[in-house]
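quick one, 196 residues, struct below
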Amino acid sequence: MSLPNSWHLRKVADTSSKACYICYKPTTSVLITPDNKDYFYVCLGHLQDRGFCSPIIDEAEAAAKKKKEEMEREIEKVKKEFQEKLKKKKAKEKEKEKEKEKEKDKGKGKDEKNDEDAEDKKAETERDDKARSIRIKSITAADPATKVDETPRIYALHKNFYQMRLDRIRNAEIAKRNSQRLRNPTAFPSVPRGDP
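---
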């Protein structure tokens, strides 16, 4: 039986925790082979031990992680630019309002039209600000910054521990074969049937 030295880290529920293979403390981390032939529970601290196992780093996964970080930086950059543009636009609008107030003081006969225009523009800017804030929220919601587990997902056991797992599987197969042989009545010799 060939067992690949590739072990995937999986998590189980807290209620399903079992004793660690090394220290016998309850743990929810499981190392399992890709073909599900063998598994064992192990603490996260042991996974960082270089004498026990070493992580297998997937280059495609590392490249995807790097690309994601670049995208996050780009999104932050775009957000900052957008906020700066909003600040500039608001500053310009305030200046325009001040100019209009000065004009109001000069021409009080046109107050009603100017008041309506000012209210319309304020309503439009409020709608624009709400729409922009909704867009920003949708961008951040589409790519949430969730806490990512930084531990590697695939490990290779060192030769002594790997050999222990192979021996355990081999001994279990031998014990199973022996119990089947003992149950089989044809495995024992029969009583002689002739004259002695």
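DSSP finds four helices and seven strands in the chain.
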